[in-house]
Design a protein that fits this description.
The chain is built from 3 helices and 7 strands, in the order βααββββαββ. By secondary structure, it is α/β, with parallel strands linked by helices. It has a single domain, classed as Transcription elongation factor, GreA/GreB, C-terminal domain (Chitinase A, domain 3), CATH 3.10.50.30. The model has no long low-confidence stretch (mean pLDDT about 90).
């Protein structure tokens, strides 16, 4: 069973706004998936949010469980995304797959390359 995502109020409301502003975007599928994740999320106060939970601007190490390959990314706003620097837009499939989850969570998510099982190895929220 998939873990339940957790968001602080500020990120939750920000992401809801981003979804509304992105209604006509080309990534409608990801926007729908993000909206679904927000619908089932637990909303926490900013000061009680576990530091190992992935949020906007988090630096994350994830592992593709089947391929046993790790990658380090930072989840950023769409305007700051830069794949060469490992900065992935919050609206990209990979970010939507892991936002709101925490270290050691494993999530199955449909990415363009097929369904992947991703394990969250490390999260840094500096």
């Amino acid at each position: 069973m998939k873990p339940t995502p957790v968001f602080c109020k500020k990120d939750y409301h920000f992401l809801r706004e981003l979804i509304l502003k992105s209604k006509n975007a080309t990534n409608a599928k990801e926007i729908g998936q993000l909206s679904h994740e927000l619908d089932r999320a637990i909303i926490s106060k900013e000061d009680v949010l576990d530091s190992s939970i992935i949020r906007i601007n988090s630096h994350v190490t994830i592992e593709d469980v089947k391929a046993q390959k790790q990658m380090k990314i930072q989840i950023v706003l769409p305007s700051a995304s830069n794949v060469k620097e490992g900065k992935i837009s919050i609206l990209a499939p990979l970010s939507v797959a892991i936002i709101g989850f925490k270290e050691n969570d494993q999530v199955d998510w449909e990415l363009p390359a097929g369904i992947k099982t991703l394990k969250i190895i490390a999260v840094s929220n500096l």
